[in-house]
Amino acid sequence: MTTWHDPDNLMAAIRQGRVRVGPHAQAVALILHGGRAVEPRPRRSRDVSYLRMLPFAPAVWRASRGRVAPVLVHNQEGGWIAPTGSGLAQTRELVRRLAHEHGLPVVLLGHSSGGWAALRCGDEEAVAGSVALAPWIGEEDPDDHLREKVVRVVHGEADTVCSPQRSRDFIERLRSAGADATYQGLPGGHALLERPRRWHVLAARAVVEVAARG
Questions:
Q1: How far apart are CA 138 and CA 120, in angstroms?
Q2: Taking a C-beta distance cutoff of 8 angstroms, is the pair 136, 81 a contact?
Q3: What is the phi/psi pair of residue 213, to 5°?
């Protein structure tokens, strides 16, 4: 595992897709795949967690009509919930580099451990808000850092990997504090395989909404 002290060393494990920022772009969507925290990932062409997120990039582009430029990254070290904290440091560094390079706000879109990272790093100054799909949420995960941000969570109600109840409770705490936060439950489990196009459309619409509100 890399250490989080050196940004360049930290980012050596990240493969970043091309960001096509057109003349009408108003935000960048950083797309974070899921995956286990302690297992190195296979190559992108064989990484199911990464491949699952591929359709979300064009869905965001279409839904926003080019106003949100999507970029999908691949973390070769594993999921974003690394014991060293490197996953969160990597996410924050990606946000800062994208904002610096393009001068645009960033919307975080993540699945599973990527959804967890999207929520945990949603307080970055450049982040307009977070969209989390079936996110992992720990019992003691904080929410106060998101109370000034836009948060959208979509979760399969039959998910046995990441708890939809924890997602609902997380959003309820944010809403009770006055945050712009919503939860939407869908049929199906964790892998986004039941009516996948519905996931793509809902996530893309949420990203567009967050970009507009953030």
A1: 11
A2: yes
A3: -90, -30
Q: Is the pLDDT of residue 214 over 80?
A: no
Residues 123-147: what's their mean pLDDT? Answer: 96
SS (H, E, C) 23-79: CCCCEEEEEECCCCCCCCCCCHHHCHHHHHHCCHHHHHHHHHCCCEEEEEEEECCCC
Helical (H) or strand (E) element with 48: helix 48-53
Chain segment 15-56, per-residue pLDDT in tens? 988 898 988 999 999 999 998 766 666 666 778 899 999 999
Please state, as a whole number, how many other Cβ atoms lie within 10 Å of the Cβ of residue 175: 15
Q: What is the Cα–Cα distance from 105 to 103, expressed in whole angstroms?
A: 7
* The Cα angle at residue 183 between residues 178 and 186, in degrees rounded to 5: 170
- Count other C-beta atoms under 10 Å from residue 121's C-beta: 26
d(C-alpha 47, C-alpha 112), whole Å: 15
Q: Would strands 68-75 and 14-16 be described as parallel, antiparallel, or unpaired?
A: antiparallel
In the structure encoding, which two tokens stand for residue 193, read together? Answer: 């395989």
